[in-house]
Amino acid sequence: MTHPLPLPASDTLVHDPHGGMARLVEIMRRLRDPDTGCPWDIEQDFSTIAPYTIEEAYEVADAIARADMADLADELGDLLLQVVYHAQMGAESAAFDLDTVITGICDKMIRRHPHVFGEDSREKTAEQQTADWEAIKAAERARKGDAGPKRTLDGVAAGLPALTRAIKLQNRAARVGFDWPETDQVLDKIVEEAQELRTAENADHRFEEFGDLMFVMANLARHMDIDPEAALRAANQKFTRRFNQIEDDLNKIGKSPSQSTLAEMDALWDAAKAREKRD
Predict the structure, then answer these.
(1) Which of 39, 143, 251, 256 has its CA 20 to 30 A from that of 177?
(2) Residues in the chain with pLDDT < 50?
(3) What SS3 string covers the chain?
(4) Within a domain: residue 56?
């Protein structure tokens, strides 16, 4: 009677359901192995993987918005894979590895929470703790010397979603006093920008004025403590839900949206809206 040869140590780890983080790291190492790995994975670099990292973060946010905990666990796994992917590529170029990433974030969290891990008082409001966090970040940037940002708005990542970056830019400017003190002033500015958009004379001017209007809308969200990305995602979901209801109602009478008038679809929209309010 013959017995199968034992699996190599790496195979044993890959197939160990209790292997945890070490298992995931080994799977990624094997996928990137230049001789035996996956051809697609071997070809990737930081720039080609970055869009997937962003996409996975949005899918995490979507699962949270839908309150789907099973899907959230799955999407968090996909996002974790992105971290391991970048760390593996960093290790291959001897730039950094996963231990570097983990040590760095652990040190940063300890450094930025002296009220938890140090001797600072915990008797502070959330606003005071946020101010302390920003002050610590500013000190960290200053310690970087010539490599660090020099101006108020330096260091706000250009690759952020536009609305999110607008909020961060405005928060930075507000810290040095460049901000409207009252929400009503922001609302007045929205009216002004909308009128400028209305009277724009050409496509380039409309493009510019539309951007200005969106920027002020982001500022309004900041003043009202609203996440504009989350608010727009919710609006997208509401629009999708109600338009799907229009299609369902039309389907019951043998019609499609393209076979209907705007007035008919508007009436069905109002009916879907009323049903949501009753429910």
Answers:
(1) 143
(2) 1-3, 5
(3) CCCCCCCCHHHHHHCCCCCHHHHHHHHHHHHCCCCCCCHHHHHCCHHHHHHHHHHHHHHHHHHHHCCCHHHHHHHHHHHHHHHHHHHHHHHHCCCCCHHHHHHHHHHHHHHCCHHHHCCCCCCCCHHHHHHHHHHHHHHHHHHCHHHCCCCCCCCCCCCCCHHHHHHHHHHHHHHCCCCCCCHHHHHHHHHHHHHHHHCCCCHHHHHHHHHHHHHHHHHHHHHCCCCHHHHHHHHHHHHHHHHHHHHHHHHHCCCCHHHCCHHHHHHHHHHHHHHHHHC
(4) yes
